[in-house]
Structure to design on (472 residues):
């Protein structure tokens, strides 16, 4: 009897090791390549049972990663067991009639699109690119360019989470709501999201409308033409560096016109030299930016384009990838500003960019409705989001310089009642973090209840959770 027990225990330990260990590397990094973090081991669980066994049996801290597109160490911490969730990537159930889908958390938006596109359905809310995982997107409470929609939480019916105890719980707005509103936007701090049920929308044809204008005209343009539109689906405006006084507004409106691009989805592939050349030109060539409005954009945005919603929603981030990230890298930041404070923030932001000679490639402006109540919500009211794409050096000196202007931008957003986004570099002071996320202490108190041993860690929570929260 004892022999059989011992043998089966030994067998399950060996099995666990064989099933889960796939990566011999010990470094977890993100797309920017400037945040290498040495972890104890990387595992790719293939089932919820495996996740539960790992969480229960591993004595040390655990970190969680999806696509690893967050840019400040949010996916790892030193000496953790790193769960790479991309092995949990299946569709579990799909109801075209109810327009809902239940998926494992490591699946990417693009994989879901491949399943739902033949039924002419589309994701209700997601980011601008399709490479992100559902778990990673829920954990940052992502948003896209959707007109009239707020953050991703607005499309989540329910989800399943593995807690630090190994317990598997279901959470929705009505069932274990504290976990639902804590885990969405919770950056893996409360548990491992293993499944989610999401609302879908119709995949319709959309026509692109392009309008150029001075930045001072945009707030009224958005209120009059876009917000009230019954047909606008996607909208964003690109603010032109280096003067930040003009922008191009791009809106995709529903149409019955025939598509001009018949493809249903964009392929995920490596886009090479043409895009790299374009970004090099923007960031390195004198007057490269000035030529964008007059030369590059008229070519890029030319003609009457009609596409499927899924086509526009299935963009591949590799289109942005530089030839190398050794000496410099492309990075994102994002600020949320109440709609009424648009002009004031643009003026403050532009001054900071100019004063610090920041190498800004683009500022994409989007609109977001308020959050449904997540603890770490970044949109407490109707906001404009400013997504800043820039180039920086990879050495410590350059990182420190970026830290200076980032903190100034955070102050600028806070000064107009706004906030900043957490998936990017961790430059914010603790005070700025708490001002931007006033319910963080509620989140920390929930973490102490469901994860008393601080099992789930990463650089974001190491920085803001470990310190005494009362200190201001
Ligand atoms: C080019 C680019 C464009 C972007 N565009 C947008 C945009 O339009 N809108 C927007 O909102 N954001 C945008 N982002 C940010 C992006 O949405 C986030 O970085 C998102 O987290 C990426 O998903 P991921 O799968 O890579 O998550 P990861 O970076 O792998 O993880 C993000 C966080 O989620 C946690 N996590 C991951 N999986 C799980 C899980 N299963 N359970 C619990 N915790 C988990 C991780 O620990 C980490 O804290 C963009 C980023 C890039 C690089």
């Amino acid at each position: 009897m004892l022999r059989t027990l011992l043998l089966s225990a030994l067998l399950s330990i060996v099995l666990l090791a064989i099933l889960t260990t796939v990566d011999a590397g010990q470094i977890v990094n993100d797309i920017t390549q400037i945040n290498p973090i040495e972890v104890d081991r990387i595992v790719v669980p293939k089932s919820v049972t495996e996740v539960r066994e790992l969480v229960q049996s591993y004595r040390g801290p655990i970190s969680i990663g999806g696509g690893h597109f967050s840019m400040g160490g949010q996916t790892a911490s030193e000496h953790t067991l790193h769960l790479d969730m991309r092995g949990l990537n299946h569709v579990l159930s799909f109801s075209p009639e109810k327009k809902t889908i239940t998926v494992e958390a490591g699946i990417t938006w693009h994989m879901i699109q491949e399943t739902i596109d033949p039924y002419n359905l589309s994701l209700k809310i997601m980011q601008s690119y399709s490479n992100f995982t559902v778990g990673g997107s829920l954990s940052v409470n992502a948003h896209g360019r959707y007109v009239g929609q707020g953050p991703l939480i607005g499309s989540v019916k329910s989800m399943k989470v593995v807690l630090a105890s190994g317990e598997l719980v279901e959470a929705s707005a009505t069932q274990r709501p504290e976990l639902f509103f804590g885990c969405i936007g919770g950056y893996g701090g409360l548990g491992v999201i293993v499944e989610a049920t999401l609302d879908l929308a119709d995949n319709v044809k959309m026509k692109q409308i392009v309008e150029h204008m001075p930045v001072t005209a945009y707030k009224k343009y958005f209120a009059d033409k876009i917000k009230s539109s019954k047909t606008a689906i996607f909208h964003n405006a690109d603010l032109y560096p280096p003067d930040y006084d003009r922008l191009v507004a791009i809106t995709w409106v529903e149409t019955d016109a025939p598509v001009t691009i018949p493809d249903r989805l964009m392929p995920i592939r490596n886009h090479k030299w043409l895009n790299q050349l374009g970004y090099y030109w923007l960031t390195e060539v004198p007057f490269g930016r000035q030529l964008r409005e007059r030369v590059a954009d008229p070519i890029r945005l030319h003609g009457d384009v009609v596409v499927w919603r899924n086509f526009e929603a299935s963009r591949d981030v590799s289109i942005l990838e530089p030839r190398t990230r050794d000496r410099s890298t492309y990075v994102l930041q994002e600020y949320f500003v109440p709609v009424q404070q648009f002009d004031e923030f643009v003026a403050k932001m532009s001054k900071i960019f100019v004063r610090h000679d920041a190498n800004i490639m683009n500022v994409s402006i989007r609109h977001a409705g308020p959050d449904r109540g997540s603890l770490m919500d970044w949109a407490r009211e109707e906001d404009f989001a400013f997504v800043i794409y820039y180039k920086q050096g990879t050495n410590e000196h350059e990182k420190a310089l970026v830290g200076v202007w980032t903190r100034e931008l955070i102050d600028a957003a806070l000064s107009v009642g706004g906030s900043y986004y957490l998936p990017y570099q961790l430059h914010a002071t603790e005070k700025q973090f708490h001002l931007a996320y006033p319910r963080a202490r509620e989140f920390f108190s929930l973490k102490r209840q469901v994860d008393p041993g601080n099992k789930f860690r990463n650089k974001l929570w190491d920085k803001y959770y470990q310190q005494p929260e009362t200190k201001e």
